[in-house]
Amino acid sequence: MLSKAKIKFIKSLQLKKYRKQEQCFVVQGAKSVHELLLSDFEIQFVLGTTEFLDAASLPKGLEIIAVQENELAGLSEFQTNDAALAVARMKPNTPVKIAPGEFALVLDDIRDPGNLGTIIRTADWFGISKIIASEETADIYNAKVISATMGSFVRVEMYYTALTDYLQSIKLPVYGAYLDGADVHTQAFHDGGFVVIGNESRGISPEIGQFITQKITIPQYGKAESLNAAIATAIICDNIRRPK
Question: pLDDT tens digits, residue range 67-87?
């Protein structure tokens, strides 16, 4: 049975200050909860409909609570969640290790949770498993971010840090997305390095721009003012993976 205390706890995690205090976050929807169950995250408990729980691969010893769809609807931030919800422990914010020949993304103040989630999902698609983010970037454990990743949050490591301190010690190429850079479709990419994606409205800040070793751009053919940050990330990642 779902207790009032658990309901209160789950709802409190909608706010960042309580996620930080409890070091826990909520995962909503069958797809994301399924990916969570297959990951190395420490899961506190799972709520699910009978249909979901019967079909899921559930670890022994995990607290499982069967609920009705209307109970889930009352707990979820999204109307589409009618199957499962889980609470898991956050992972420590530890520096990521970049292997030789590996690419990583650097996010300079990406504020929109949907954009961040889609960027994480895109990185996962292109085999990029490390993201270094500014401290102002949206919280990966925000429910909208988790939902937009479609489960990719379990495979992509994120490290929040002061980017100026991090980048000044980097010796690999640092590519930055600008309006006046080299054509991303013809740019020769090294085996490994960093790709910086700037803020949705302001782009890459001057403080971070000083560390860019190669400006790149996505050619414009129409009259749109700009590209969505997540779409730009996808185009750049596609070109990084282009056959040499």
Answer: 998 888 888 776 576 799 999
